[in-house]
Amino acid sequence: MSRDPRLPSLADRLDRIDRRWIFLAMFLAVAVPILWVGVTGRTFPESPTPAVQGAFDAVESLPPGSKVAISMDFDPASAGELQPMATAIVRHCAMRGHSICAMTLWPAGGPIIDATLKDVLGARPEYRYGENFVSLGFQAGNEGVMKQVNADLSAAFPTDARRTPLADLPMMKGVRNIADFDLLVSVSAGYPGAKEWVQFTVSATLTSGKPLRFVAGSTGVQTPQLIPYYPTQMVGILGAIKGAAEYEYLVNDAVRRADPAASIPARFQEAQRRMAPQLFGHVLMIALILLGNAVFVARRARGASA
Amino acid sequence: MSRSMAVLLASLAGITMVLSKFIAPLGDAEVKVADWFNVLAAIAFVLGGANLLKMNLLAISARGPGWGYSAVTLCAFLVTLGAGILKVGVPPAAAFPAVPFSGEKDVNGSALWWLYEYAMSPITGTLFAMLAFYVASAAFRAFRAKNAAAMFLLATAFVVLLGRTYAGVLATSWIPHDNPWVSWLRLENLSAVIMSVFTNAGTRAMIIGIAIGVAATSLKIMLGLDRSYLGGAR
Amino acid sequence: MTPAADVATPFFVEGRGAIAIALLVVSAAIIGGILWARAGGRVKVRRMAGLDAVDEAVGRATEMGRPILYVPGIMDMDNIMTVAGVTILGRVARTVAEYDAELEVPTSRSIVMASAREAVQSAYLAAGRPDGYNPDRIYYVSDEQFAYVAATSGMMARRRPAACFYFGCFYAESLILAENGNAIGAIQIAGTAETAQLPFFVAACDYTLIGEEFFAASAYLSGEPDQLGTLLGQDVAKAVAWIAILGASVAGTVVAAFLGAGPVADGLAALRQAMGGGG
Asked: Average pLDDT in the C245-265 region?
């Protein structure tokens, strides 16, 4: 008994599927692994790529007490992807005993700096504000700020976030411009961000005789834009939550090698914990693409045979 | 007359910013011109705020579809503005305990901090997270292998999607990682090669084309050849 | 004691010579193209399906009695993509005015709102429909990226525009806009030079102008000789870049493979350094 050709086939029904079913599938693909990781605390092992290793080595190779400038150019929207990166970098700098100068060019980035520094340095009594870490807060002006810090940091940031003149901060003595830092790190979600730091600040130092080492962390969509700058203008890139996970893995591995009995708090494994939902999300995407193509082929064949 | 002045101002500003890159005595001019724009943009916030109030009040009074959202928008706007300007819940700064408004407007525990921490942060994070759902529906609907190039694109997408997760590492873990002839076939390495070679080449080519396009558009504006951004054709 | 000699500040910023030369070459190519077109030279421009579809999209919206949405990006007028977006808005608005359709332009920046109003008003005047211009249809929403896209998405769901144009600088909100437009069945035409957002537009929109096509759109739509001349100049500049890249790649390969260290290798390294490529 042949099928009524006027009835929609399975392929037709799938082609017209309400997209909320797809949303539900994605929700489950992400939520279930999150719960699983939350209960078990297990994470996947990571094998760092050269770009991430380069970022790690850039911080690791600096002698203790080096000055590191970290620009946290992101807002709460992209904190899910970039906060673990920022936390891992600040933690790594603290482990090496580097002095940290945090700043941001995004208006909503100020509280992010405060939260990150408090979270990582709060439990480290050797870190005292003004002596080995400062927060310059937010400064409006986008690339204008970057151009100003090339020549005179205090012209761009006359005071820190607590309204203290830079000259009164022990850590900032001897720091006239951005090139006086041993390393610049930008964790960026878009504009202004890592690309602008390369174009307006780092490239200028490369032709001035005092090259500034630069490491960038960025969201997944922005990473391909930064790859052309690696490894000349930037010595390392942390691309998306995967890059953050690889960097966290390297930092935690260094902690465990120094002290095999050390336990790593969950908040310092956030990126690694997010790799499980990422895995299932990506597998779902592949399944959806294959299903979509199966529907396409089936409908095309049906159309050809009709 | 006013259009000619506007064009002249645009030309002078643009030419100054270009020349300041190469002529040392003009070094500061670029930053100053950018600062002028920032001042204008700050003043324009008042224009935007007034327009926001007008449009949403009109929507509420007309009781058109979605007027409730306009009411929520206005409430949120006025509450946030008030919390910031009046520094609600902000204690005086430690250095000036007798001065009521001396504290920072977004100090921990203040009303503005509360709005940022418990309203803005979760809402913007949620909206950004919605991209995952939209990407999934776009993948199902749009990623069809209609020709050979599309098939090649899809294969590349699968490699990169898997290579960025542990599934990719597991799938090709049987390929020896210390053999340079075949180790590049491991999905995580292949993904990195695709990003650093093919994507890199394509991105570089596009950036060169875009940069020349930007130069052309900027030159047209600086030379006054294109005035349509002021309203109307040249 | 003799006084210390004054240290003269150099007039030209050091290390920018190669960039200055590149800038002069690109500018000369563009100005040369303009002069060529003004002198009557013919500039052949390939068809761009996305721009040819503007009339079709506006006509469809008019027939369906539904509005047309135009999003000029989320950045301010100091971004060249926004300037290009507002320029194209003027051209699209003229078509909308001729069809007597309804145009809606939510903006993310106040200055863009003011500029967009000027562009649309001039377009309606040029089309002979000054009474059709309604400034309240061009309005400010929010500077905050996701607040803007939430408001615009809500408007799309309620008013269901039949045609959506996205021309300007976009970031993460691009996919949200395009998917919502797809869900309401609108015909969508997009153009941006943000390479990170192009894949989303290509996947979700009917037509996408990629990179430099977006900057060429204004010239393409106007048809004016000056504007078309700049397209010719852009192509000449690209050809120069292509030859330079090919030459430097071949020279670098030959040096690395056969010559090793020497004056040629030093020269290439100095050129790379001068162009900001680092050591």
From this structure: 82
CB atoms within 10 A of CB C161: 24
Q: Are residues A214 and A242 in the same domain?
A: yes
Q: Which chains touch B (3 or more CB pairs under 8 A)?
A: A, C
- Asked if residue A193 and residue A110 are part of one domain, the reply reads yes
Interchain pair B213, C211: CB under 8 A: yes
Number of domains in chain C: 1
Scanning A153-212 for CB atoms below 8 A from B yields none
The answer to whether position C202 is within a domain reads yes
Q: Is the same domain home to A198 and A292? A: no
C3 has pLDDT over 70? no
> For residue range B148-188, what is the model confidence (pLDDT) as tens digits?
999 999 999 999 999 988 888 889 989 988 888 888 899 98
Question: Given CB atoms, is A303 within the 8 Å cutoff of chain B?
Answer: no
Neighbours of chain C (3+ CB pairs under 8 A): A, B
Verify whether the Cβ–Cβ distance B38 to A26 is below 8 Å. no
pLDDT digits (tens, 9 = 90+) for C185-194: 999 999 999 9
Task: Look at residue A64 and tell me if it is in a domain.
Answer: yes
CB nearest to A206's CB, from C171, C183, C278: C278
Residues of chain B scoring pLDDT < 70: 1, 231-234
Contact A206 C277 (CB under 8 A): yes
Look at residue A306 in the predicted model and tell me its pLDDT: 52
- DSSP collapsed to 3 states, chain A: CCCCCCCCCHHHHHHCCCHHHHHHHHHHHHHHHHHHHHHHCCCCCCCCCHHHHHHHHHHHCCCCCCEEEEEEECCHHHHHHHHHHHHHHHHHHHHHCCEEEEEECCHHHHHHHHHHHHHHHCCCCCCCECCCEEEEEECCCCHHHHHHHHHCHHHHCCECCCCCEHHHCHHHCCCCCHHHCCEEEEEECCCCCHHHHHHHHHHHHHCCCCCCCEEEEECCCCHHHHHHHCCCCCCEEEEHHHHHHHHHHHHHHHHHHHCCCCCCCHHHCHHHHCHHHHHHHHHHHHHHHHHHHHHHHHHHHHHHHC
Give a yes or no: residue A9 inside a domain. Answer: no
Q: ipTM of this model?
A: 0.88
Mean pLDDT to the nearest integer, C39-44: 87
Is there a contact between B143 and A293 if contact means CB atoms under 8 Å apart? yes
A89 and A205 in a single domain? The answer is: yes
Report if residue A287 sits inside a domain: yes
- Count structural domains, chain A: 2
B78 part of a folded domain: no
Interface test with A, best of B164, B170, B190 (most A CBs within 10 A): B164
What is the count of residue pairs from A and B with beta carbons less than 8 Å apart?
A: 130
Q: Which residues of C touch A232 (CB under 8 A)?
A: 277-279
pLDDT over threshold 60, residue A145: yes
CA distance C185 to chain A (A): 13
Where residue C54 sits, what CATH number does that domain have?
3.40.50
The whole domain housing C120 covers 49-222
Report the domain count for chain B: 1
Q: Is residue B186 situated within a structural domain?
A: yes
Enclosing domain of residue B229: 143-234
> Which tokens is A28 given?
């489950």
CA-to-CA distance for C217 and A1, rounded, in angstroms?
Answer: 57
Q: Which residues contact A14 (CB under 8 A, 6 or more apart)?
A: A291, A295
For residues A160 and A283, state if they share a domain: no
Q: Which of residues 99-118 of B touch C (CB under 8 A)?
A: none
- B87 is a domain residue: no
Q: What is the domain range of residue A57?
A: 50-271
Same domain, A255 and A194: yes
Distance of residue B69 Cα from the nearest chain A Cα, in angstroms: 21
Considering the domain architecture, whether residues A168 and A260 belong to the same structural domain is answered as: yes
Q: Which C positions 35-74 lie with beta carbon below 8 A of chain B?
A: none
